[in-house]
Write a structure and sequence with these properties.
The chain is of the alpha/beta class. It folds into 3 domains: 295 residues, Vaccinia Virus protein VP39 (Rossmann fold, 3-Layer(aba) Sandwich), CATH 3.40.50; 33 residues, no CATH class; 128 residues, Immunoglobulins (Immunoglobulin-like). The chain is 18% helix and 30% strand. The strands form 6 sheets. Strands 14-7-8-6-3-15-16-2-17-1-21 form an 11-stranded mixed sheet, sandwiched between helices. Strands 22-20-24-25 form a 4-stranded antiparallel sheet, with no helix packed on it. Strands 9-10-13 form a 3-stranded antiparallel sheet. A hairpin with a 5-residue loop joins strand 9 and strand 10. Bound molecules: S-adenosylmethionine. S-adenosylmethionine binds next to strand 5 and strand 16. The site of S-adenosylmethionine (SAM) has 20 residues, from strand 5 and strand 16.
Length: 497
């Protein structure tokens, strides 16, 4: 067997999960149970989908405890070792003013070896999480797909290699005349064994190529046919009917465009992948209610698709911004495209889910470096920034309460650049998201009511009313997340008699 070797290659974990050390526990921090949207959707199933904030090395080790051999499909779109930084857009206020902020860095200062070690140890853990009939898709490009393929052969067995899918995106930009323009990603598809799920579902079919479309004709009933050619080894001159509007997928996918800013699914995340790509993968390699995972979830594409086609899911990302973006994407799911009738909206809400945290990485954001005036740029650590505060008006009337967000003050305003300050003209412009737990249990923040902005929907509600069923002493927790991702929580007491 051919193996790839590199300096400091970690080999001791290759053989099995017993050596995976559980380093830290998950901390359940938030749940989403919005009575207004989940009223008729309380399932008996105690399972809750999970979005986990933290380094996926820790996430994978911890999941091993309960999910060893239980995940049906893993899709990952990790950093590609490009040597660059990747951005997401921060939108401010109602005018959709936008600025770039760093989402994640893909610079490997200790060289390719460190990248290969990073992937190698995570892929081993992922193999152990996969069920025996499970599949894994690893999304890469020319930078490292050739190395990772040899590593995948070693971890999953070359006999379990199924495809190298070429996703060729038509919108590649032409920045060079010195070599051919690079315009595809490679997705390595392996299974855990030779018994695996692969669904011949018409919803994964590729569109006919323009050449075939040109040759196809429709009869009076709208059914496609072509004439001539051969069918089952016989030459035909009669009409040959084709009973679907597409063909069984090849391994070169040319029918899925890259995300554009004018689409409904656009999240302003520079490496966001199209929902159509994930739709094909998830429909082909899993069934309803199967458990799907994406451990580098970014803007949450795989998670949103898994949710829409009724899979259970686990998503994780090391960046709090990604978790926040995915959370909002899920809350706004009903306004996204329906995956089957693409031109229509999905129209339903995501099922309740929870947010967990592991390791050091908190949920509070950091002020992007480019947003800070020159002489204050050395204020790198989060602790050098002052905490924001907000003001709430709380009006009690019998068994109901009205809560109004009145003011938000971020004392770091003075260190921001002129442009950013101009965009943050009113206090409301600071607010990206705010949520209320009307009955805080002292442990987990339950988002019972939320208002938030998305790239397309910029208005925010600043007032909400809530009715209590029972008398008692309640703790109300109000959380505000500003456009920089900085989270502030304030606590209020309320007595209902
Ligand atoms: C290419 S992006 C994923 C994009 C995603 N497929 C989408 O459609 O939006 C890679 C993501 O991996 C995350 N990431 C990088 N290192 C990580 C780690 N050690 N643990 C968890 N996430 C990580 C980054 O924060 C980034 O969001």
């Amino acid at each position: 067997m051919v193996k790839l070797n590199w300096k400091n290659k970690e080999t001791k974990n290759i053989s099995g999960s017993e050596s995976h050390q559980i380093l830290e526990d998950f901390l359940e921090v938030e749940t989403f149970y919005l009575p207004s949207i989940y009223e008729d959707d309380i399932s008996n199933d105690s399972w809750k989908n999970m979005l986990i904030s933290g380094d996926n090395r820790l996430v994978l080790s911890q999941l091993m405890k309960d999910y060893n051999g239980k995940v049906k499909l893993i899709y990952i779109d990790p950093p590609f070792a490009t040597g660059g930084d990747f951005h997401y857009k921060i939108f401010i206020g109602e005018n959709k003013e936008k600025y770039n902020a760093m989402a994640y860095t893909d610079i490997w200062r200790e060289g390719l070896e460190s990248y290969l070690n990073f992937m190698h140890e995570r892929l081993i853990l992922m193999r152990d999480l996969l069920s025996n009939d499970g599949s894994i898709y690893v999304h890469l490009d020319w930078h490292v797909s050739h190395y990772i393929k040899i590593i995948m052969d070693e971890i999953f067995g070359s006999e379990n290699f199924r495809n190298e899918i070429i996703w060729a995106y038509p919108a590649a930009s032409a920045q060079t005349r010195k070599f051919y323009i690079r315009s595809f990603d490679s997705i390595l598809y392996y299974t855990k064994s030779d018994k695996y799920t692969f669904n011949d579902d018409p919803n994964i079919y590729m569109e006919f190529s323009d050449r075939v479309k040109f040759a196809l004709k429709k009869d009076d009933k709208g059914t496609f046919y072509y004439r001539g050619g051969s069918h089952d080894g016989k030459k035909l001159s009669q009409k040959v009917y084709v009973n679907q509007e597409g063909i069984f997928p090849r391994d070169v996918w040319t029918d899925i465009p890259y995300i554009r800013a004018n689409t409904l699914e656009y999240q302003g995340f520079s490496t966001q992948k199209p929902e159509r790509l994930l739709k094909r993968i998830i429909l082909a390699s899993s069934n309803e209610n199967d458990l799907i995972a994406d451990f580098f979830c970014g803007s949450g594409t795989a998670i949103a698709v898994a949710e829409k086609i009724k899979r259970r899911w686990i998503g994780s990302d090391i960046s709090p911004h990604s978790i926040h973006m995915t959370q909002k994407r899920l809350l706004d799911l009903s306004n996204s495209n329906d995956l089957i009738k693409w031109k229509e909206k999905y129209g339903r809400n995501a099922r309740p889910f929870k947010i967990l945290k592991i390791g050091e990485k908190g949920r509070s954001g950091q002020i992007p470096h480019d947003f800070i005036i020159k002489n204050k740029k050395d204020l790198k650590s989060q602790t050098s920034f002052e905490s924001p505060s907000f003001n709430i008006e709380l009006i009690k009337k019998e068994n109901s309460v009205k809560i109004k967000l009145n003011q938000y003050i971020n004392p770091n305003f003075t260190i921001l650049t002129k442009n950013i300050k101009k965009s943050l003209a009113k206090w409301q412009d600071w607010i990206d998201y705010w949520a209320i737990d009307f009955n805080y249990n002292g442990k987990i923040f339950n988002n019972m009511w939320v208002s938030y902005r998305t790239p397309k929907k910029r208005e925010l509600s600043l007032v909400v009313s809530f009715n209590y069923d029972k008398s008692g002493d309640y703790q109300i927790l109000v959380k505000v997340i500003d456009v920089l991702g900085i989270e502030t929580i304030q606590n209020y007491e309320l007595k209902i008699t």
